[in-house]
Amino acid sequence: MQALQRSLPGARAGARPVRPARRMVACTATARPIPRATNEQKLDLLKRVECFIFDCDGVIWLGDKVIDGVPETLDMLRGMGKKVFFVTNNSTKSRAGYMSKFQSLGLDVKAEEIYSSSYAAAAYLESINFNKKVYVIGETGILEELDLKGIRHLGGPGDADKRVTLKSGEYMEHDHDVGAVVVGFDRYINYYKIQYATLCIRENPGCLFIATNRDAVTHLTDAQEWAGNGSMVGAIVGSTKREPTVVGKPSDFMLKNISASLGLRPDQICMVGDRLDTDIMFGKNGGLTTSLVLSGVTTEEVLNSPDNKVIPDYVLAKLPDLLTVKEMAMVAA
Amino acid sequence: MQALQRSLPGARAGARPVRPARRMVACTATARPIPRATNEQKLDLLKRVECFIFDCDGVIWLGDKVIDGVPETLDMLRGMGKKVFFVTNNSTKSRAGYMSKFQSLGLDVKAEEIYSSSYAAAAYLESINFNKKVYVIGETGILEELDLKGIRHLGGPGDADKRVTLKSGEYMEHDHDVGAVVVGFDRYINYYKIQYATLCIRENPGCLFIATNRDAVTHLTDAQEWAGNGSMVGAIVGSTKREPTVVGKPSDFMLKNISASLGLRPDQICMVGDRLDTDIMFGKNGGLTTSLVLSGVTTEEVLNSPDNKVIPDYVLAKLPDLLTVKEMAMVAA
């Protein structure tokens, strides 16, 4: 701790931490290459950040394989008393449902450490004291999270096989007590659901339109890229001419929700991701500390390209690089 | 004819017609109320316009009933050698298929007088000498019009019952010879179609993305408003992040197509509609002469509201008001 304080003037108790990494970035914004974090910078990161938010693919795992050293890194962070969250825009599963993915990879996580966009939708409704019904375009994850918050819902998988024939005089009834439509990824999207959601938004006064995310692409199988929830949301935007409230990435609801529930300033939270234009941009827009890992889609070449304007506070080859300062960090903590 | 020439100086042979109605509008743009066309103005309209493009609902019929006098008015126009087109953004039927609607109402029209957005899609592809395959989200109307132009296609109703389960390792093949995706209204929209269209647009180099229209609402039953093709198009925009080429209203493709095929200047074509913000705006944007009829959704109060900035060249209570100058017009013709 003594050594750490000497080398990092901002680390003294009570002072708002000076942020050497950001300072470095500010001084060398146009200087390339952007260096990987030194041990001193890693210690600084671990000192002033109390909560780590991880994008998963490219950070925690690659495809179906956990990146070597990740379990030990997570153990180290938890051992230091840090909070960790695993963020996914996947809304098809609840937090509990998503745990099986982690467990199948041998990762020991708690449901509360997972922040899925299905959970974000329920947390958002809870945050505004919502007390009407929700019509759901989406899968079981959203329904399960709504149930956990005691929010009434209809739609979802139960409407998968409903058909609209548009025969002469056909009329669709809808529930006038629906006060929100939540749209998540739905492999069984159909015209019945589109019309039902449209009627609620268009005809129920004050009806909310909430999107778990608007991702163009989702990776529900490893074999190829699949059309994402941008399609389901686009369908409802197209018939209602309304823009949704997005609760998953890249909206800042999740960040504010985590920050408020933990009582932390945004800069005490670090977004760790492998994508500059989504993860790192998302963290920066929310005022978070940001760490780019080079174990996913972003190469050092892209990071250092003059075209790249998104400069993370820290750069790590991979998350387990933090283990190089494990002993010093544990002593400091 | 002599009387007409005396009263309308712009009507002399060979001169580009002066447009009294437009002149009137220019002088009195802020003067309200905007008067209904006088007999002199009706004669002027009939003299210099060679082609009439009609929106149907509110102009030709109201719901399931033809507006009194419309058949006689159409007979008069045809008798004067005018071309008439009935425009619909409905893409579910081909022009031939749409004729049954006219016939059921007792209206005698030819398939070539109907300009549906299904036809527009095929005409657009023909206009660019398209020679690859088309993947269709939509109904039989589009397929029939493509067949008439000899354009190969796949998708459409044949994909209505296809399912994507996204089971582990699932991979969707697609035809790399698809060079255009056409998206029209599709009551059997599903995720298979969304993903197929997305793959073609995303992975086939140069693949076109064509929308018959982006209407939020469609009136496929009289009982209520239904989510329109804006939903199907929105779904594909959401997963491809590409904007479509729209061939139906309010794009100007149809106007250019009609204008070119008849060898007419835009101002020799009159758009007749009951909506200021769609029909009349559409005509004005294309440089057409415009006539508003008050037999549909637009009231005189809305027309004369200071908030209304869309001023039609002519205002008629209803289309058959043209019959008041029938004898003079037939003599003049």
UniProtKB/TrEMBL annotation, chains A, B:
InterPro entries: HAD-like_sf (IPR036412), HAD-SF_hydro_IIA (IPR006357), HAD_sf (IPR023214), PGP_euk (IPR006349). Its EC number is 3.1.3.18. The active site is at D55, D57. SUPFAM superfamilies: HAD-like. Keywords: Hydrolase, Magnesium, Metal-binding. Its cofactor is Mg(2+). It catalyses: 2-phosphoglycolate + H2O = glycolate + phosphate. Divalent metal ions. Mg(2+) is the most effective. Belongs to the HAD-like hydrolase superfamily. CbbY/CbbZ/Gph/YieH family. PANTHER family: 4-NITROPHENYLPHOSPHATASE-RELATED (PTHR19288), HALOACID DEHALOGENASE-LIKE HYDROLASE DOMAIN-CONTAINING PROTEIN 2 (PTHR19288:SF46). NCBIfam families: HAD-SF-IIA, PGP_euk. This is phosphoglycolate phosphatase. It comes from Pleodorina starrii. The lineage of its organism: Eukaryota, Viridiplantae, Chlorophyta, core chlorophytes, Chlorophyceae.
